[in-house]
Amino acid sequence: GAVVSQHPSRVICKSGTSVKIECRSLDFQATTMFWYRQFPKKSLMLMATSNEGSKATYEQGVEKDKFLINHASLTLSTLTVTSAHPEDSSFYICSASQDNYGYTFGSGTRLTVV
Amino acid sequence: ILNVEQSPQSLHVQEGDSTNFTCSFPSSNFYALHWYRWETAKSPEALFVMTLNGDEKKKGRISATLNTKEGYSYLYIKGSQPEDSATYLCAFADMRFGAGTRLTVKP
Q: What is the pLDDT of residues B42-58, one digit of tens each?
């Protein structure tokens, strides 16, 4: 079956630094990847949709300059949290689709900004 | 309905009880509806992809139905077990999730 690898699973960084999270589709080419964030006691919130080779489409209220998404190849999308602040601490998870029908999730990244 | 809505928000049942919950969605321009089982801070587990009006899918004790004309899908769990405790999410074709139904099954 389709496998999506997300790395790192946990990261602690200092306030003001940037953190990059990688999402890789291991055995399929992902035409579309999604990035989500979970707020405490809330459901998964869609942050952005990225299509290979084009700019990501951000959801309303998500700062595109703060959450940089790059989908440079059919197997890799990255989310960079720039100038991280404690309020950016959250659980981030990606999902990928080969055919816009079935979606596979990564294992998520727990980001803590201190 | 403009977005995906789920009800109830939470549900507490006893082991062995059967239960069901609802996902409501815009009935126009339907493409697909996804059901996921999700434990917080873990990867959501895909349960079903529903595409056709009248679809009924089953996976073990869990089944789902779809009514695209009226814009709802039901998820049923027969004989709930403690390990079924999780949040059940539905997502429309745009992959925006509803708020989820948090199920707790008490032994």
A: 889 999 999 999 999 99
